[in-house]
Amino acid sequence: MDCPVCTRVLTTITAGRITVDACKWGCGGLWFDRYELMRVDESDEATGEELLEIERDPDLDVDLSKRLNCPKSPEFVMMRHFFSAKRQVVVDECPDCGGHWLNPGELRTIRTEYASEEERERAAQAYFSEVFGPELAAAHAKTEEDLARARRFAHVFRFISPSYYIPGEQDWGAF
Prior knowledge:
By secondary structure, this protein is of the alpha+beta class. The protein has helices spanning about 105-115, 115-160, and strands spanning about 10-15, 20, 30, 80, 90-95, 100. The longest helix has about 45 residues, at about 115-160.
């Protein structure tokens, strides 16, 4: 595979149980196949330490603002998005294969964002509450209002159609 940033051939590196592709002596970026990044994204994980410092070409000047094509599926342009709710790192993700491209230093930042998975989940919950809280509260209120209306409607039917008119609910066999 070729590097999406500097077009050099990527080198395979094994880190624990995962194998990633690195742009050694190029831009220093890392390619993670689907689900590989989540195995090295926390600082307490021993796997991934060797991926923090990839040898780079100091004379190489790259444009990190340009959109990148996936190294695995070159016909797909990768989506750029924040890695977490803290918005410290922007990663490139392939919509086809689900792989992630990280530029130099981004893995180190990702690994130091949160002390634990619980802290990551709390931050995500806080972010979603901030972004979607008012809409969710309005939808919940609407649902409660609809439920109350349905209960009132069902209550009216109890008087219009008592249970002894419902087939199978009476002993005298009217239906």
